[in-house]
Write the structure tokens for this entry.
Amino acid sequence: MIVDTHTHWGIVWEDKYATDPSEWLATLDRHGVDMAILMGHRGLTRNADIERSNDIVKKACDNSGGRLVPVATVHPDFGDAAVRELERCLVELDMRGLKLHPWIQGVSTAGPVMDDLCDVCGRFQTPVIFHDGTPCYSMPSQIGGLALRFPETTFVLGHAGLLDLWRSAISIGRRCENVCLTLCGPHLAGIRGIVETIDPDRLMWGSDYGFGWSDSIDYRLHLLDDIEMDGDTRKKIMGGNAVRLFRLNG
Amino acid sequence: MLIDCYVTIADERETVYSADNLVRDLDIAEVDKAVIAPSDRQIAVYNSRGNNLMRSEADRFPDRLIPSCTVNPWYGGDGIAELDRAARNGARMLVLHPTLQGFLINDDLADPLIEKAAGYNMPVYVHTGPHLYGAPWQLVDCALRFPNVNFIMGHAGATDFWNDVPFAGTFAPNVFIEGSFARPFSFKNHVMKVGAEKGIMGSSAPRNDLVFEWKHYRAELADPEFKCVFGDNLARILTGEGDTP
């Protein structure tokens, strides 16, 4: 089974299709991708729409026949309200993770509400997925700092350091067993270095599909084709680890 | 004429790639030529060693490989002399890497090098993307001071400066956009906005697989209007209009 662990219900998709993911899923079909972890977009960029964005992401997933799994977002600057919204998403909407994008959201990983959010996710045993690879708020080492301070919480480097910080992502992945890396951002050589170095139980594949209309799946899916790894490792990266982390079996 | 704008020939870290393997991959991808560039270490400190290697490897495949050269601007007058030496030895493109070499492209530190490159009608490839030293608008700021020099925006600001590329890429007529690391699905959007005549194909092999990159970029930019992206635009600034690089 192939699970794309980094996708978005993009603003353009939401504006055109509201909560109907049929066309969105057709792209997955073209590439043989079975399921996707779906994060919001509007909620990351327009603070006033966060609750509505979470509801929309949830409804899009409900309309997917079980192929899309929703992830919440909140804005740490909203203080206690952000914590309450996270708890609503996890309890009432059965969302399977928290997405934070400190670059777009303009928040530091060092803020006090960040601690509360990480603590909640640890208690619910649901991962915190970070955009990473981008200074000055979204560096792998900063997210690694959270991972060191919250060892009971699982953190996901959503881009494994991107093009410039993938070596830092490797170092953080080595140090922190509660950090997973999504192979969605480094070039081929960087991905190869990560696969050769990091525990294969903590690696996942993602495409970043859905931000706009572009089809990023084909390129990013086949980028891994020529990387040497045993069959078991490939299965874990392409879906097996996601099944476990996001509780896709129910 | 199909030309890959940027391939590293080196034997360390994530860039282990020989000229023989490059020519093999060019054959598989049905690409005519590639511009070869030195390793990170040679870009940062051992410039002469890298420039000599590019020259000698290009000499082994004179119809396929085009040597670039690099000089760290912090070498000052010695660096100018090295650029003179490399240019006289046949280097066709100056590679500057502000992040590895530790300078701002819109500072005046590199100005003497750029002026020297202009004297050789040599385009200047500038790595962009890293946050402090790789912003597209930094390059444009520099390019506007040197309107007689052609600059290549390496990697089109990937990853995070993608949104700056359309404006930055069109603002300075002497800035071309090279697409390695930008990924075909994003690079197409850039080229459509800045104009096909300013797009340049590069693979950044061996950090990427040359054959894979050419396959996917060709598929994404399959329309005839993009044909010039795959070699003609680069040929024009490497040689002057109409010549064969």
Remarks:
- Chain B has eleven helices and eleven strands.
- Chain B touches chain A through 25 residues (CB under 8 Å).
- The radius of gyration of chain B is 16 Å.
